[in-house]
Amino acid sequence: MTERRRWKAEEKLAIIKEVKENNKVVETCRKYSVDPGMYYKWKESYDTFGLDGLKPHYRRMEPGVRKLMKENEKLKKLLAEKELENALLSESIKKRWRGNNEIGR
Is the CB of residue 9 less than 8 Å from the CB of residue 55? Predict the structure, then answer.
């Protein structure tokens, strides 16, 4: 298996400009061994964000941020459980109260 090629933003931009000049996507992509689908992703990203859209964006998170996200998930689950518990208790109180009022009539 071959190693994956990493394209620099300037290289991507050069390919986009070359396709724009000659209007031949498939031929230009073959010339540089780029899948046409990848070219269209690059072009869309370039059209939307400019040269910054072609730069690599790493998704690696700092360990502290990851820890905070896990803690946040735990707290959300606890809050959801408490809200469910409160809703069930509230509903049972309403049923009891209605039942007691009907007996007194």
Answer: yes
The encoded tokens of residue 18 equal: 């070359």
- 47, 24 contact by CB (below 8 A): no
- Ramachandran angles phi, psi of 7, nearest 5°: -100, 135
Compute the mean pLDDT over every residue in the chain, rounded to the nearest whole number: 89
User: Distance between CA 104 and CA 96 in Å, rounded?
Assistant: 13
Assessment of whether the complete model's pTM goes beyond 0.70: no
Residue 19 structural domain: 9-54
Structure tokens at 1: 């298996």
Whether residue 66 is found in the same domain as residue 46: no
